[in-house]
Amino acid sequence: MSTDQRAMIDAMLRQRPIPEGPRPVEEIRAGFRAMMAGMTVPDGIRTTGTSLGPRPALLVEPVDGGRSGTILYFHGGGNVFGSPETALSLTGSLVARTGFRALSLDYRLAPEHPFPAAIEDALSAYRALLDGGEDPSTVAFAGDSAGGGLTVTTCLAAREAGLPMPAAIVAFSASLDATRTGESMDTKAGVDPFFTRESLAHTAAMYLAGQDPHQPLLSPAVLADPTGFPPMLLQAGANEVLLDDSTRMAARARAAGVDVVLDVTADVPHVFQCFAGVLDEADAALDRAALFLTQHLRTPDATRTPAAANRR
Q1: Which ranges in 57-215 belong to alpha helices (H)?
Q2: Domain of residue 229, CATH code
């Protein structure tokens, strides 16, 4: 265990200036862009702007060949901030480790576009993949934080629309309970260097726009029926207030007969995977996520270069 690395990252996150009162949305967005610009993006990938349904997307793929299969990625940011570019350290790491391509969706954000705009865009993106000839057995949903929540709620929306399930779900530190009733909201208060109940409430109010959070598409960890879902990998850090979003979602999935892996790493913060190259636990977690994806996507070919297979 990398005690020094974990302590360094915790200290770095705590050094961020604490605003006096809620921040304007543009200030939140700019601050997040600046923070994520410092994350390591792996070599050996290329990015191309494209679209999925009515929304822009970023195609991330290996430069030296890969294998058939698509990761439909949903970036984090509380449904208020973030973009495919801010998630590039994560999508790039998954692409480099698996050889699959990733399509990172630029879904609409609140407060300009509150609930359920993000879910509508995610569902439209998945439908566009299927309409374009993608076999669902070759598609996985992946995402972090609010985007991790979208991996679950998009499956709920797809099932309601009569669409087939994707092959797998991978969610990093997923936000899955807008009611904020998990015990970790209190037991990890102060331990979490990134979020407080108040900061989460500020962005959640923009997304909810007055909607009752007690509904499956907003709080699937406590209200959704995941029957028929594909295999799920839920990764979280033990130091985050949203930890119980993942633990309770895993329990619901198990009760519904879904294959689920709950993967909790000690003493690390929210979406610690973005610290790949700096934190050993981040690289190890991404390795496990890549293995999970390669085990569950049914690809018609096995073409993969040694560099793509071994790249860290």
Answers
A1: 88-98, 117-131, 146-160, 184-187, 197-208
A2: 3.40.50.1820
